[in-house]
Design goal:
The chain has 411 residues and is of the alpha/beta class. It has helices spanning 21-29, 71-84, 102-114, 132-140, 156-166, 169-172, 179-182, 205-216, 229-235, 250-255, 266-273, 277-285, 311-324, 358-370, 378-385, 389-392, 397-410; strands at 9-15, 47-53, 57-63, 90-95, 118-122, 145-147, 187-192, 220-225, 242-245, 263-265, 295-300, 329-334, 347-350, 374-377. The protein contains 17 helices and 14 strands.
């Protein structure tokens, strides 16, 4: 139950009002998670429930409002429902044979467009007889489906099995954070900054997940603060395979790390782990195209209250202004909401998205690409602005090649 949401398979439950989505969620989780009522539109905001889906592992079910909701409030509910697609790894369409039609086909189109695996649950099968024409269409389209009845206790185990069979293999075989760069039996040094924004008594999530990734794959992990890094490095008989630093300490750590030791940041590791490193390398290079007056969006997944020298609201804006040599129009956003007018921005600089699943970050990249706007992340932007981009990409040969080609062509 303590598995972070970002490591869970996100399963979104979609359908019309009063098709039994909430009842289905309660049956799957065997708990009264969502309010169930005969009144259509009972579920207003997405309801999340983490659980274990054995033998797969930790998942997060998301119950949504009816896709057919109406009225001014209904439109807002539908908008929130559609937003859940951005973080859905797998979908369930809940319907019945009497109502199957336009809304269900819209959901299917959305799943296919986003390449999200999904299944169909024909609910209330004890009230609605099977329509062979509909199931024939689904069979021809190779869309898996199951018959369920919550009141009769039918089909729940079959639905669980269908979900397990439909899991995207890419999610099961997710990439490592950094252990593949270090190797079994080799060491990595993780340099961690302890400042006012560091949670008291614990490490932040990217640091914890990086440590766990190294330990799970038989690598050695040495964790130090930036003040002790030089001394720690000097005591090692064998140099580490990789040094990972907090982005804000990039310059200091780069200055005392031998050139032959690969160096990068936690944020850049997460550009690969949670997003698309190549896309974000291209985005960082777009910083050179900025000029005074351009609009820049700095996006953060977390909703924490910034204090002091906050990285997203203070430091990056300051470095950007210094680099460009003029004032920029900089907007900051937090959380799942994303502005509709992203085409107004010259570049979007995003946090590492450690609290999100990869699906949501890739969805944002897709939206930005369609708007023809550059996107990068904190670590890559900082390395570029501080003039150590080449060094920061050293562990990633394909990304480094792209930058070196760009550098050669612009000379």
């Amino acid at each position: 139950m303590k598995t972070p949401k970002s490591f869970r398979l996100h399963i979104g439950i979609f359908g019309r009002r009063n098709t039994g989505k909430s009842s289905l969620l309660n049956a799957l989780t065997q708990q009264e998670v969502s309010i169930v009522s005969d009144i259509a539109g009972t579920t207003t905001d997405p309801v999340e429930k983490p659980m274990e889906l054995l033998p797969f592992g930790p998942v997060l079910f998301i119950d949504t409002a009816g896709i057919d909701d109406v009225g001014i409030i209904g439109e807002k509910r539908v908008k929130k429902t559609i937003a859940v697609f951005d973080r859905t790894d797998m979908g369930i369409i809940v319907s019945n044979f009497a109502e199957w039609g336009e809304h269900e086909h819209q959901l299917i189109t959305e799943f296919k467009k986003r390449e999200i695996p999904f299944v169909v649950a024909f609910n209330k099968i004890d009230y609605f007889n099977e329509d062979p024409n509909i199931t024939l269409q689904l069979n021809n389209a190779k869309i898996p489906y199951v018959f369920t009845s919550i009141s009769a206790g039918k089909g729940i185990n079959e639905l669980r099995q269908l979900l397990l069979q439909s899991v995207n293999i890419d999610f099961i075989n997710r990439p490592a954070i950094l252990s593949d760069l270090v190797g079994y039996g080799e060491a990595a040094i993780l340099v961690i900054s302890i400042d006012k924004e560091t949670p008291k008594g614990r490490l932040i999530l990217p640091q914890v997940q990086s440590i766990r990734d190294l330990l799970d794959n038989g690598s050695f992990c040495i964790v130090v603060k930036e003040q002790e890094f030089r001394e720690t490095l000097s005591r090692l008989k064998k140099p580490p395979k990789l040094v990972v630093t907090d982005s804000q300490a990039f310059n200091k750590i780069a200055a005392c790390t031998p050139k032959e030791i690969p160096l990068t940041s936690f944020s850049i590791l997460f550009a690969r782990f949670k997003a698309d490193l190549i896309e974000m390398v291209h985005g960082a290079m777009a910083i050179d195209q900025l000029k005074a007056g351009d609009k820049v969006l700095i996006a953060e997944a977390c909703s924490h209250h910034p204090i002091g020298e906050d990285i997203g609201t203070v430091k990056i804006p300051r470095w950007l202004t210094q680099y460009v040599g003029g004032k920029l129009q900089i907007d900051n956003i937090r959380g799942h909401d994303f502005p509709e007018n992203i085409s107004e921005y010259k570049i979007i600089i995003h946090c590492g998205a450690c609290m999100w699943n990869r699906r949501e970050m890739l969805t944002r990249i897709m939206q930005v690409r369609q708007a023809k706007v550059a996107i990068t992340n904190y670590g890559l932007a900082i390395a570029y602005l501080l003039g150590i981009f080449e060094r920061a990409l050293q562990p990633f040969p394909s990304a480094l090649d792209i930058y070196m080609t760009h550098k050669k062509n612009t000379l």
